[in-house]
Amino acid sequence: TEELLQKSEKLAVVGELAAGLAHEIRNPLTTLKGFTQLIEYEQGRANREYIRLMLSELDRIEMITNEFMAVAKPQAVKYQEEDLISLVKQTVNFYIPQTLLKNIHINEDYNTKYSRIICDGNQLKQVFINLIKNAIEAMPKGGSLYISVQNTETNYLQVKIRDTGVGVSKEILPRLGEPFYTLKEKGTGLGLMVSYRIIESHQGTIQFESVENEGTTVIITLPILKPMLVK
Ligand code: ADP
Ligand code: MG
């Protein structure tokens, strides 16, 4: 629990700083990128390689600041009644073309009595996008993606996303969700941090189980819609 507490404290600080910082970085970045593109256009042949590097680094900063702003900026959060299965399905469908290309087989199992919850549907979809994307990226040689939604014995819904991918070691497992923690060459290390924030703001939890070279299971637990709370 101490670890969990530390993690959420860190997240709160990061969240406060991030919006302002990302915003401050974005304006000069836009100017730099514009002029670099102009130089590429006007005298690209002379310094093509340098300019290409500059643009690719600028793109990277841009990607990180954009991703950060999307999380940290206090956006209008809209909580309403939604069907969790439908949110999960929409996300899975979005990834079908990619999984076909990458030889990933999808197994879906929706077995619930109740699947309605009060949530910000777009935020939860963002979480499922982040997690399914990670699962797909963990299976570069193909594999299986298992998606399920179930009720627990208590008043919770559980979404499980399991892959048969590379997995992570025990040592690394506790670091998942730390801002900027990534093992990917082109990763930002923000997807899981964002997901933690969103699920925490929905009074839910995220757990990871992983075995190296066998796969990873992510379990999201969310409180169901309690009938007496509905207006
Ligand atoms: P990114 O995907 O940009 O690296 P994330 O926050 O989404 O950032 O994930 C952080 C790290 O956690 C990843 O770089 C990867 O090493 C590890 N990870 C996350 N999900 C999985 C998974 N399903 N299988 C294996 N490793 C994972
Ligand atoms: Mg990711």
TrEMBL record:
Source organism per entry reads: Robertmurraya mangrovi
UniProt-recorded name of the protein:
histidine kinase
Q: Where is the Histidine kinase domain?
A: 20-226
Q: What is the lineage of its organism?
A: Bacteria, Bacillati, Bacillota, Bacilli, Bacillales
Key word Transmembrane present = yes
Keyword annotations from UniProtKB, A to Z? ATP-binding, Kinase, Membrane, Nucleotide-binding, Phosphoprotein, Transferase, Transmembrane, Transmembrane helix, Two-component regulatory system
